[in-house]
Every structure is written in structure tokens, then in C-alpha cells.
């Protein structure tokens, strides 16, 4: 499994509403994420709107494409659009390169 970390920027004036909506994600959206290969998916939100996402997946590009093909994702992205400036959030993720992993280095040291 590949570890993926990405960032987005939520409009600071909309942070509380963003948190509220993510406390009750639609069940069909949760199922679509699971079914399209998103595992151990978490979002972290800083007070200035920096959003950091983390997930495990076999193939991130395939997982993105599979989600893009679902009807529920189109509805979710339309509903979430006001929280982000510019393009849809699922097309604006800035993937961060991994530079350190404790388990991998411990494994190599053995």
C-alpha cells in the first residue's frame, strides 16, 4: 500500500461549517471512498484553513479516477466547492513527497 499525504486550503471563514459537514459525511460517500480504494483516510485541519489529508491506497491515480466516476462524488464536490477557492478540491490536491518513515528505516536497520 502506498501512503499518500496531500494539502488543500479551506477558506478560513468557513472552517466551522467544514468541520460540521465532515462530522456527518453522507453514508454513500463513505461507501464510495471505501469501494474505490481509499483506506485509513483522515483529514486534519489547522485554524488557518490548511487541510492535510492522509490515506493508504494501492494506486492513488486509480482511486481518484474511480471516485471521479461516481455520482455521489460529483454531488459531494459540488456541495464542498464553496469551501475552496478555484478548482474542485479533488482536482486540486497537492500531494507531498514522503521523506521519512520510521517503520521503513527500522526495518532497514535490522
UniProtKB/TrEMBL annotation:
<protein>
    <submittedName>
        <fullName>L-rhamnose mutarotase</fullName>
    </submittedName>
</protein>
<dbReference type="InterPro" id="IPR008000">
    <property type="entry name" value="Rham/fucose_mutarotase"/>
</dbReference>
<dbReference type="InterPro" id="IPR011008">
    <property type="entry name" value="Dimeric_a/b-barrel"/>
</dbReference>
<dbReference type="Pfam" id="PF05336">
    <property type="entry name" value="rhaM"/>
</dbReference>
